[in-house]
Specification:
- By secondary structure, this protein is an alpha+beta fold.
- It has one domain: 2-C-methyl-D-erythritol 2,4-cyclodiphosphate synthase (60s Ribosomal Protein L30, Chain: A).
- The chain has 5 helices and 7 strands; from the N terminus they run E-E-E-E-H-H-H-E-H-E-H-E.
- The longest helix is centred in the middle third of the chain and has 14 residues.
- Bound molecules: magnesium ion.
- Magnesium ion binds next to strand 1 and helix 1.
């Protein structure tokens, strides 16, 4: 059985606003993430991990922030497009693990909603998606509430070919 792993990372700056979108879930708070798309760092990290696992570049390769058609785009759309590429390469997602690093908002009460949303976008079960939340203990840009970052690791397995 062929397996592939991929790692992804992303960070976006914060500004005053009405909420941050993480893993496709809008979380109310007094800030929002700055980006060309909806700046969903968690989905961007998962996209990069998936693309890395199939050796297909990174999110910016397909959805560049210089392209007006992606302005304000919901990142859940990027994730679905990336999932199609994984399918086409003959792989399926076995497991996703991720970490969101944010001083605020507090993510623990949104964790299961985020897992559910990611699982539904990727058509996998909730048990295959892990989302963990960390603060940066008040240190650096994340600790100073100027940014939110995310890491993701994915494991893909080759789909069984039907003759
Ligand atoms: Mg990004």
């Amino acid at each position: 059985m062929t397996i592939r792993i991929g790692i992804g990372y992303d960070i976006h700056r914060l500004k005053k606003g009405k909420g941050v979108r993480l893993g496709g879930v809008l979380i109310p708070c007094d800030q929002e993430l700055i980006g060309h798309s909806d700046a969903d760092v968690l989905i961007h990290a998962v996209c990069d991990a998936l693309l890395g696992a199939i050796g297909a570049g990174d999110t910016g390769t397909y959805f560049p922030d210089t392209d007006e058609k992606f302005r304000g785009k919901e990142s859940s759309w990027f994730l679905k497009e990336v999932a199609k590429k994984v399918q086409k390469k003959g792989f399926k997602i076995s497991q996703i693990d991720s970490v969101v690093i944010a001083e605020r908002p507090k993510l623990s009460e949104y964790r299961s909603r985020i897992q559910k949303r990611l699982a539904s976008l990727l058509r996998i079960s909730i048990g295959q998606v892990s989302v963990k939340a960390k603060t940066n203990e008040g240190l650096d840009s994340i600790g100073n509430k100027k940014a939110i970052a995310a890491w993701a690791v994915v494991l893909l397995v080759e789909k069984v070919k039907t003759k």
